[in-house]
Amino acid sequence: MAGKYYEQLEAGQIFEHEIRKTVTESENVWFCGATFNAAQIHVDAEYCRQTEFGRPLFNSIFTLGLVIGLSVQDTTLGTTVANLGMTEVRFPQPVFAGDTLRAVTTVVEKRPSESRPGQGVVTFRHQGFNQRGEEVCVCLRQALMLRTPQP
Hints:
This protein has helices at 25-34, 40-43, 45-49, 60-75; strands at residues 14-16, 21-22, 80-90, 100-112, 119-129, 135-146. It is α+β, with helices and mostly antiparallel strands.
């Protein structure tokens, strides 16, 4: 199992995820279509030429999903039961087609589940960075995690 069980995660633990992803224009257009987000700032290059950015911005929800997705292999693959929530979500810098994103995850805190003895709640801080090292996404994610199975 690639993911970590509740007992294998400690507050302050940092994961610098090795997998990176270069995002493409077609991914942004597909995601906006799949989520019915037709905002011009994401899909209309001519409109965007007149904005301060000069080109389409990546959909921020795609960015959030990608940053969390980049973390799964090292942290929660096969050991997460459910996402309980995401808070303090911010996008300090825009993402554009051609940017290469990487993620860093910090275990913020953990506690045993009060209602589920075989599980625990872990709060992760996920941060996404572009190829210039600029933070493009950050959030706190609360996840219900499996505890190590007992024989």
